[in-house]
Write a structure and sequence with these properties.
By secondary structure, this protein is of the alpha/beta class. The chain has helices spanning 21-30, 42-50, 66-80, 99-106, 113-141, 176-196, 217-225, 239-246, and strands at 10-14, 34-39, 57-60, 85-88, 144-149, 201-208, 257-260. Strand 1, helix 1 and strand 2 (34-39) form a beta-alpha-beta unit. Helix 3 (66-80) runs parallel beside helix 5 (113-141) and helix 5 (113-141) packs parallel to helix 6 (176-196). The structure holds nicotinamide-adenine-dinucleotide (NAD).
């Protein structure tokens, strides 16, 4: 099992305070890493870090701000001396403030430019900036693993019929920025894997499918029927994949996309 050990490694998770980010932190900690839980709210990150292996830390980090990422890098290097694993997990999945206006606002023809730009900033530019500023430390030490979190919607288009309610009415449309940015993350992964391959930095994508998280029963049933395993993911379903990609167990893997979606994209 030494292949999967992350003992002595420093692993950073962006968007750590979210639904899946917490699970990435736990997985890395269970495998022995010192985890840096990074998100917009430092208190939430500190609380999360206190539940992990001793030595873990919570840190404020805005993936859209080079200054914030550089500040975090200084604190991490000061505490641990090196950076070995980066999970680019932070992302925005558009939520429409007013559910009554959601249908109109989420229509492609009406989709606001500000929402498009915000998603590009966080989901794509954030991955670029964190890789550039934090990944450069790995290139310098000639070893590291970057895991970029994409989505099934970066591989196949959203099935808009999923968002039709029981009464037959469309509640909203899954917006274009999410698919476009997640697709771009998959290609950015390949670019960086090629660029940093000779420097010993591996860069892979992890593509999760939808996680069950208090959605209504009708939605859960419809979603589940579109997967081969006939269920949505549990937040913990990605732990094994994260440990695999972060550790030497995947030493000869780079530029790849590990799809963990219950078979959504195989049907
Ligand atoms: N939940 C799912 O069903 C699902 C499915 C496929 C892919 N994903 C992907 O998994 C990842 C995590 O998803 P989640 O469901 O945990 O999302 P979430 O919304 O629960 O968490 C996202 C986290 O990112 C943080 N964040 C937002 N903007 C940020 C910024 N500028 N800087 C730093 N942090 C920022 C938020 O504060 C939040 O804690 C995302 O990349 C998402 O696209 C999720």
């Amino acid at each position: 099992m030494d292949l999967f050990s992350l003992k002595g490694k420093t692993a950073i998770v962006t968007g750590a305070a979210g639904l899946i980010g917490k699970e990435h932190c736990k997985a890395l900690s269970d495998a022995g890493a010192n985890v840096v839980a990074a998100d917009l709210d430092e208190d939430k990150c500190a609380l999360l870090a206190s539940t992990l292996k001793t030595g873990s830390m919570g840190i404020k980090l805005d993936v859209t701000s080079p200054g914030s990422i550089k500040e975090a890098r200084e604190r991490i290097i000061e505490k641990f001396g090196h950076i070995d694993v980066l999970i680019n997990n932070a992302a925005i999945n558009d939520m429409f403030e007013n559910p009554k206006a959601a249908l109109e606002q989420s229509k492609f023809e009406n989709y606001p430019l500000e929402l498009w730009q915000k998603s590009v900033d966080v989901n794509l530019t954030g991955v670029f900036l964190c890789s550039q500023i934090l990944g450069a430390e790995m290139a310098r030490q000639k070893k590291g693993s970057i895991i970029n979190i994409a989505s099934t919607y970066g591989i196949v288009a959203p099935d808009q019929s999923l968002y039709i309610n029981k009464d037959g009415k469309q509640s909203f449309y899954k917006p274009p920025a999410y698919s476009a940015t997640k697709g771009a993350v998959i290609m950015f992964t390949k670019y960086l894997a090629s660029y940093w391959g000779s420097d010993g930095v591996r860069v892979n994508t992890l593509t999760p499918g939808g996680v069950e998280n208090s959605q209504d029963e009708f939605f859960i049933e419809k979603y589940s029927s579109k997967t081969a395993l006939k269920r949505m993911a549990a937040p913990s379903d990605y732990r094994g994949a994260v440990i695999f990609l972060a550790s030497d167990a995947s030493a000869y893997m780079t530029g790849a996309n590990l799809i963990v979606d219950g078979g959504w994209t195989c049907l």
